[in-house]
Amino acid sequence: MLTNIIQLVAILIVFILVLVATYFTTRWVGKSGMIQTHSPNIRVKETFKIAPNKYIQIIELGSEYYAIGVAKDSITFLTALDKDQLDLSGETSEVKKITFAEFFNKVQKKK
Fold first, then answer.
1. How far is CA 2 from CA 5, 8, 9, 12, 77, in A?
2. What's the Rg (C-alpha) of the chain?
3. Of 54, 68, 111, 62, which Cα lies nearest the Cα of 83?
4. How many CA atoms lie within 13 A of 53 on its CB side?
5. Cβ pair 44, 61 in contact under 8 A
6. Is the separation of the CB atoms in 20 and 27 below 8 Å?
7. 35-77, pLDDT tens digit by residue?
């Protein structure tokens, strides 16, 4: 009986240590920039889903705009676009970051 309790406590301690290690590793990877999605020269301006796993995207490379087709295993160049052809009025230069608590409260108010 005592050995069963000791084994249970040991397993719980190992489980808690794995959870703590996972938490800190996730925070480290998130802050370290290992997963970098920001680039000053390449931006996805707009994405439109046309079918499952198929999208049309407008991307900005430097100061040029292009339309591309994105599928599960391929990317296809569609056409170059002029800035005059695009409606960039809804574009915001800065995204407001909110905490999860603010988001949660906002969702609860809608219900």
1. 5, 10, 11, 15, 68
2. 23
3. 62
4. 4
5. no
6. no
7. 556 677 888 888 999 999 999 999 999 889 999 999 989 999 9
